[in-house]
Design a protein that fits this description.
This protein is of the alpha/beta class and 201 residues long. It has helices at residues 19-33, 55-66, 116-137, 162-175, 184-200; strands at residues 7-13, 39-45, 52-54, 70-74, 77-79, 89-90, 92-94, 100-104. The strands form two sheets. Strands 2-1-4-8-7 form a five-stranded mixed sheet, with helices on both faces. It has a three-stranded mixed sheet with strand order 3-5-6. The protein is globular, with a radius of gyration of 16 Å. The protein binds zinc ion (2 copies). One zinc ion binds at residues 143, 147, 155, 157, 182-183, 185-186. One zinc ion is lined by residues 143, 147, 155, 157, 182-183, 185-186.
Length: 201
């Protein structure tokens, strides 16, 4: 592996979440990956105010600017060129040709953020989508069926079906159902991969 996956750069694109929240997300990611990611760096990417950005383009921009294992969190809609209109705006994705994942908070936000609990809900959802996309960066694949972690919540790699729920329903049924711990089989995979990476040093 050319990239050191143990280091993750989290890039805030836009301003929807505060820097201290970004820090919190970084800490919770470190906890969930249990040593397979050891170092998180936080940074900010200046971008013109925009309602939406092409997801693939954003991964390329972040790859050029930051190199290596990177997670971008934006408040803009992430657009894809998928023929199915439903998939033209996504909550998260990764570029298979580099190690950059991107997450959009746009569809994760409650309609209005009026209280601490609204904001907490947004942060929790953002974290869970981040875990899923960074999980892909680490080599984990989607669970087609609902798979639970030891704490009884869905493993962050659980995917569910978009079309059955619609976006709002999907976020409530699947994203909110996920916890911040991986299931035993994902954990085993991460440990094995980590052990191999260490022995290659
Ligand atoms: Zn996935
Ligand atoms: Zn899992």
């Amino acid at each position: 592996m050319l990239t050191n996956m143990e280091k993750l750069t989290i890039v805030r694109v836009g301003n929807v979440i505060s820097y201290s929240t970004l820090h919190q997300i970084g800490e919770r990611l470190l906890d969930a990956f249990e040593g397979t990611i050891q170092d998180v760096q936080l940074t900010h990417h200046e971008s013109p105010v925009t309602g939406s950005i092409d997801a693939f383009l954003l991964t390329m921009i972040l790859h050029t600017e930051f190199k290596g294992h990177t997670l971008g969190i934006t408040d803009a809609d992430l657009k894809t060129k998928d023929e199915d209109e439903f998939y033209q705006a996504i909550i998260g994705g990764k570029n298979p040709r580099n190690d950059v994942a991107v997450v959009s908070t746009r569809k994760l936000s409650p309609e209005r953020i009026q209280s601490d609990s609204d904001y907490r809900l947004l942060v929790d959802r953002t974290l869970k989508v981040c875990l899923h996309e960074v999980g892909h960066n680490m080599g984990l694949t989607d669970h087609g069926t609902y798979t639970f972690a030891a704490d009884g919540a869905l493993c962050p790699m659980s995917k569910g079906e978009f079309n059955r729920f619609g976006y709002q329903g999907y976020v409530r049924a699947v994203v909110d159902g996920r916890g911040d711990r991986f299931c035993p089989s994902c954990k085993r995979f991460l440990e094995t991969m980590h052990t191999r990476a260490v022995s290659l040093h």
